[in-house]
Amino acid sequence: MSPDLTQKSISFNSARFLTSASRLEECPPDHGAEVAFAGRSNAGKSSAINCITTNGKLARTSKTPGRTRLINFFSLNRENCRLVDLPGYGYAKVSRDMKDDWQKHLGHYLNDRRCLRGLVLVMDIRHPLTDFDQMMVEWCEHNKLPLMILATKADKLKFGQAKTAMLNIGRKLEGLECLQHLVMFSATSKRGLEESQDALTHWLEGGSAEPV
Ligand SMILES: Nc1nc2c(ncn2[C@@H]2O[C@H](COP(=O)(O)OP(=O)(O)OP(=O)(O)O)[C@@H](O)[C@H]2O)c(=O)[nH]1
Ligand SMILES: [Mg+2]
Questions:
Q1: Whose CA is nearest to atom 21 of ligand 1?
Q2: What positions does the domain EngB-type G occupy (predicted)?
Q3: What's the whole-number mean pLDDT along residues 45-67?
Q4: Most exposed of 34, 75, 95, 133 (fewest Cβ within 10 Å)?
Q5: Among 48-52, 80-84, 106-110, 196-200, where is mean pLDDT lowest?
Q6: What is the CATH number of the domain that holds 48?
Q7: What values do phi and psi take at 32, rounded to 5?
Q8: How many Å lie between the centroid of ligand 1 and the Cα of residue 70?
Q9: Domain membership flag for residue 211
Q10: Which of residues 165 and 207 earns the better pLDDT score?
């Protein structure tokens, strides 16, 4: 797909809450281009979205894990372009049934959503590549879906430690074709903001091919 030059370019600050869905049938029509943010509960997905859209009030964040329980859609100023905040994985304080339910809906979204152009996997730089993260990475590789990893909360580490953590993550993921960007990120200090915005723009404006 070649970029559509008749459309205006994306401004992340234009992001507005569109709708929430608890299952696939409630999602907006499967047209256009979407990028979804996934990661463990409390990893910092909603904060990353707020940082990227420079709108601290857009996605609800919380110290209490499990804040985002629905799939939340945010529209952008380009027609049918959306950012998606996915429910966090691994929130311990809910019942097994509820957990299974979330994972089922998450699975449906990831497997069936045709307009998904890329996945942003948000992980705490201090606790990277959990089982869930690895599962998501493998899923992207298998489905040839472009992946960007935001190793977030980098402000919690000294720069040298953060750099070492990034090298270790990079080493563990060496050779993966899906991994397009590995970004040291912090919603607090805004480290990695421009790089992630550029990557999202590229995906949403049609710079990457539709997954097969
Ligand atoms: N220091 C620091 N704290 C952060 C950063 N990003 C997120 N946090 C904090 O981490 C906690 C969780 O952030 P959220 O953005 O709500 O996490 P989430 O992944 O959306 O969580 P769920 O919705 O529960 O899945 C909040 O207290 C945030 O303020 C960061 O870059 N640096
Ligand atoms: Mg959240």
A1: 42
A2: 31-206
A3: 86
A4: 95
A5: 106-110
A6: 3.40.50.300
A7: 85, -140
A8: 16
A9: no
A10: 165
Element (H, E) at 151: strand 147-152
Instruction: Report the pLDDT averaged over residues 180-187.
Output: 98
pTM: 0.91
What residues contact 102, with CB distance under 8 A and at least 6 apart? Answer: 69, 87, 89
23-31: long-range contacts, CB 8 A cutoff, minimum separation 24: 23/105, 23/108, 24/105, 24/108, 24/109, 24/112, 24/113, 27/71, 27/73, 27/109, 27/113, 28/73, 28/82, 30/112, 30/113, 30/114, 30/115, 31/80, 31/115
Count: domains in the chain: 1
Of 61, 130, 132, best ligand 1 pocket probe by most atoms within 8 Å of the beta carbon: 61
CA dihedral 50, 121, 185, 57 (to 10 degrees): 10
Distance 43 CA to ligand 2 centre (A): 8
Would you say residue 199 has pLDDT above 70?
A: yes
Centre of ligand 1 to C-alpha 186, Å, is 10
Residue 212 lies in a domain: no
Amino acid at site 201: T
